[in-house]
Amino acid sequence: MSFTENDVREGDVMLMMYDEFSAKLIALLDNGIYSHSAYYTGSEVAGVIRKGLVHQDLKGFLADPLLEYLDVYRFYGDKDDPSTEMGSPDWPAAPVTQVCKNYIDKGVSYAVDELYFFWVLILMHDAPKTGEGRKMVWYVINAIVFLLDQLDPKLHKGMICSEFLTRLFMENDAFPKYALKFSDTYTVSGPPDEDFKDAYEAVLQALKKVDPELEKKIEEARKAGVSGLTPELVTPNNLRHSPSLKFMGRIKGSGSPEQA
């Protein structure tokens, strides 16, 4: 039996792709098939998408002509235990939804500065040709944004969609019960991209002088094997492959993520 928009329920995670150049670029550097993510509150889809935190009813969200496809994932405390499914008696979505509603009330801007560095890196180099190269680019971008924050915190106030979603599962009163787990999402094929490796190492040297603890976080994330990433380093592809999220179905567009 196919999963439809009528089967979407509070707490579901939505991963999607837009038919835009910036969206395609995000997916390329992320080694994935999604550009954005959102959360369903039970009445609205909420996510930091394009211009900031948007929230609207599901039908209106799906009607966006630039929305190419949208897949629904559901949180499980343990995928092998159906009783840990989000929405079951012992796993209500309310704690996570409340964090989302708090953000809606407060408002969140989109971190356009992070996307800016995508454009700079792409203009300076050919797109990375391996998973390792794309992975390095992502962490270089996050490291540069952090360095700018140290110079002037006013430069970076927003967050990207996957960071927003991760914070919902992290900042609720029931944490760490609802904490998202992550695994490596990059398949390294062939030798590393030396240009990006040099840039990555240069940023790491700068980070050592600013915050040794952040360098440690980035190194742990680069190596993968960690159960949790700092929210700023989570990508849409990390969410797709999270051991905590189970694919439920595609409610807009053809095909399936399993075919990608």
Task: Kindly summarize this structure in a few lines.
The protein is 40% helix and 15% strand. By secondary structure, it is α+β, with helices and mostly antiparallel strands.
Describe the model.
This protein is an alpha+beta fold. It has helices at residues 21-29, 58-62, 94-106, 112-124, 131-151, 161-170, 194-210, 212-223, 236-240, and strands at 13-18, 36-40, 45-49, 52-56, 67-75, 245-252. A 6-stranded antiparallel β-sheet has the order 4-3-2-1-5-6. A hairpin with a 4-residue loop joins strand 2 and strand 3. The longest helix is centred in the middle third of the chain and has 21 residues, at 131-151. 38% of the residues are buried.
Write the layout of secondary structure elements.
Blueprint: E1 13-18, H1 21-29, E2 36-40, E3 45-49, E4 52-56, H2 58-62, E5 67-75, H3 94-106, H4 112-124, H5 131-151, H6 161-170, H7 194-210, H8 212-223, H9 236-240, E6 245-252
Antiparallel strand pairs: 1-2, 1-5, 2-3, 3-4, 5-6
Helix pairs in contact: 3-6, 4-5, 5-7, 7-8
Structure keywords:
40% helix, globular, alpha+beta, 6 strands, 260 residues, 9 helices
Helix content: 40-55%
**H/E series, N to C?**
EHEEEHEHHHHHHHE
Structural class: alpha+beta
Q: Largest sheet, described in full?
A: 6 strands, antiparallel
Mean of pLDDT? 76
Uncertain spans, ≥5 residues at pLDDT below 50? 116-126, 224-228
